[in-house]
Amino acid sequence: MTIRRQVLAGIAAALALPFAFSAPAVASDLPDLGGRTVVVATENAYPPLQFVDPQSGKAVGWEYDAMNEIAKRLNFKVEYQNVSWDAMIQAVSDGQYQIGMTGITIKDDRKEKVDFSDPYMRSQQFMLVRSDEARFNDAKSFATVEDALIGAQPGTSPFYTAVYEILDGNEQNPRIKLFETFGATVQALKAGDVDLVLTDSVAAQGYVDASEGKLKVVGEPLGTEDFGFIFPKGSDLVAPVNAAIKALKEDGTFEALNKKWFLDYKMGG
Prior knowledge:
The chain is α/β, with parallel strands linked by helices. The chain is 37% helix and 21% strand. The chain has helices at residues 3-14, 62-74, 85-93, 108-111, 139-144, 157-166, 182-191, 201-210, 238-250, 253-264, and strands spanning 37-42, 45-46, 50-52, 59-60, 77-82, 99-100, 114-116, 121-130, 150-152, 176-178, 196-200, 215-218, 224-227, 230-232. α6 (157-166) links the parallel β9 (150-152) and β10. The radius of gyration is 19 Å and the shape is globular. The protein starts with a helix and ends in a 5-residue tail after the last helix.
């Protein structure tokens, strides 16, 4: 199987989250939030979930389409705010924003600070490298190349996967170079400043397609993650959003978004 087919197959399988099928929910079955305004924080740095389209200059992506549809069905108005990843979870926990979305992995330690929605997507991590990389082709061989470096954002799932599944379990390992945004790690990879970036399957093919042949994916998936929206602890939005997520799964809306953003859409630039 080619790398492209492997990634797309991984996306298709990973996105098929298990849930009980029943009669499709309709808008009248869902809570009505009365037109209230909900401030949603996002990073706009994780294509194709959310990013700034290089052609239009507009913030777009799977999560925007999903959140806009959730808002429509629950009758609330969305106000988006751009927030850096390293500040997002704490800012939502503090109540500065009512929802956070940026491909956030559901993790027990994060649940101590914020509430999560039910999973809206499942993803796996892949190894993104330069297209001319020949020193390694999987996690085990990467670990043996002592001068090969990984780019990662601190505190993210790719960071912990790099530490505990590829390297030696030392979070201070100098082979991990830290960056403020995921996009910066990819730029560092292209520039030759690092040699590997771990990216979820939802973003891997987008970056490969946009790289003009400069990037490729190697190796097998390195883990499975469930993504969820985050809320301040005790938020009254969790139950309505969960109801909407369930309805969007059951009536095929999420399936249509998956096809739009992971199979049909080609990133420009």
